[in-house]
Design brief:
Strand content: 15-25%
Distance between the termini: 45 Å
CATH superfamily of the largest domain: ANL, N-terminal domain
CATH class of the largest domain: Alpha Beta
Number of domains: 2
Radius of gyration: 22 Å
Shape: globular
Length: about 400
């Protein structure tokens, strides 16, 4: 057995660097729940060892989209890259992508971003045609789409809504794609009913099957709706659950005490990516609050079905598919950019995390350049407003404290 009781006590560091397989989890049995949780700090603890070791098997480095002072590095071996490719191939096939499809990827492939790489490699594994346009190709897209007539689009839902308007304004003739694969933003309400974004997408892209896909860089894994359940929802059926590839990902949904929640209850997603070599994780606390969806799926799949992320265990935000940690942003503004007077206002707007950055207008900064630097750091552009020092102080007065407040969480 991979993990024995003596190893838990005497050699945990070595054990934690070993890849885990499905059979390991099954053989561990009841002892599995005795393993300590891992979190972001655990990864940071392991990285010095990984970085100091001349590992000739490492092939790729990516970073998470979190905003700690130093980006969280994730190493991948060639086997990990093959696993990533296979994971996404399965997810895309599950979502209805075929070898005869032509797909446009509106997801960035630079900035050490794993998602764009995963979608691209998954599409190539299927044999579909691809074009990598990235997340900033709104104005170029209509002309390209009129020539290519893509059958699959991959990107953020809010981008697709703007793209539909751009197509309408450009007056070009484009066949509607067969499938929209939507990442980063939830399409369902907590009760699995269609959310605001889903309704707008359905109105903007009539006839296109809308599929939700989401993943986690640390886990090197993704979850997606199947085409059949997405098509059923398009015709008025219930909201689908995301399919889990059980030989690649072991999931647990736990309460605050670390115990499994009852069926249908919301808990924190704790997951173990299986067969990962570069940076193996065990019982990784994602911070995502989620629930099981009752199965089996209408397509016949009988494995775990996951509902949408309904909240964050901690203060981490997710905006347009990118994880943001306000504490890291505060440190970046203070220690890297030298901004002295500001507040980060966190709120929920129409069911989604919203971040507003209020900067003292007397600060010595050039707004356009400042926006560019912050966007590069966060990988999304937050709402930034220059206001008076008095206005910032008025915001702080909403949360009286002996210490100067920089982060105001209105979701309390």
């Amino acid at each position: 057995m991979l993990i024995e009781r003596r190893e838990l006590k005497h050699d945990l560091g070595e054990v934690l660097m070993r890849p885990v397989t499905r059979s390991d989890v099954e053989e561990a049995g009841e002892h599995w729940s005795s393993l300590p949780f891992m979190d972001k700090a655990s990864i940071l603890d392991q990285l010095p060892h990984v970085l100091s070791t001349k590992n000739r098997f490492l092939q790729e480095w990516v970073t998470t989209s979190g905003t700690t002072d130093t980006p969280l590095l994730i190493p991948l071996t060639e086997t990990d890259l093959e696993r990533l490719r296979e994971n996404e191939r399965r997810s895309l096939v599950n979502s209805g992508v075929r070898a005869d499809d032509r797909a446009l990827i509106f997801v960035t492939l630079d900035m050490a971003f794993m998602a764009g790489l995963a979608y691209y490699e998954g599409l190539r594994a299927i044999g579909a045609e691809t074009m990598r346009l990235g997340a900033s190709a709104l104005h170029q897209a209509p002309a390209l789409m009129s020539q290519l007539n893509p059958t699959v689009l991959i990107g953020v839902p809010s981008f697709f809504i703007r793209l539909s308007q751009e197509l309408e304004n450009s007056k070009v003739s484009v066949d509607r794609p067969r499938v929209l694969i939507c990442i980063g933003e939830s399409l369902l309400n907590e009760d699995l009913s269609p959310g605001r974004l889903y309704k707008k997408l359905k109105a903007s892209w009539p006839g296109s099957v809308i599929v939700s896909s989401w993943g986690n860089t640390e886990l090197q894994s993704s979850v997606s709706w199947c085409y059949q359940s997405a098509e059923r929802m398009l015709n008025g059926g219930p909201g689908p659950g995301g399919h889990v590839h059980e030989d690649l990902l072991h999931i647990e949904i736990l309460d605050d005490m670390g115990n499994p929640v009852r069926e249908g209850e919301v808990g924190e997603l704790v997951a173990t990516p299986l067969r990962v070599e570069g940076l193996p994780l065990r019982r990784f606390r994602t911070g995502d609050m989620i629930r099981h969806v009752e199965g089996p799926c209408c397509c016949g799949y009988k494995g775990p079905l996951l509902g949408p992320v309904v909240g964050r265990k901690r203060r981490r935000l997710k905006i347009k598919g990118t994880s943001i940690e306000p504490d890291g942003l505060q440190m970046f503004l203070t220690h890297r950019l030298g901004v002295e007077n500001f507040v980060i206002v966190i709120d929920t707007v129409k069911g989604h995390d919203h971040l507003q950055l209020l900067i003292d207008k007397d600060s010595d900064l050039e707004l356009r350049r400042f926006q560019s630097v912050v966007r590069s750091y966060l990988r999304v552009t937050p709402e930034i407003e220059l206001v008076s020092g008095e206005a910032i102080e008025a915001w702080r007065q909403r949360f009286p404290s002996r210490k100067k407040q920089f982060i105001l969480d209105m979701r309390r």
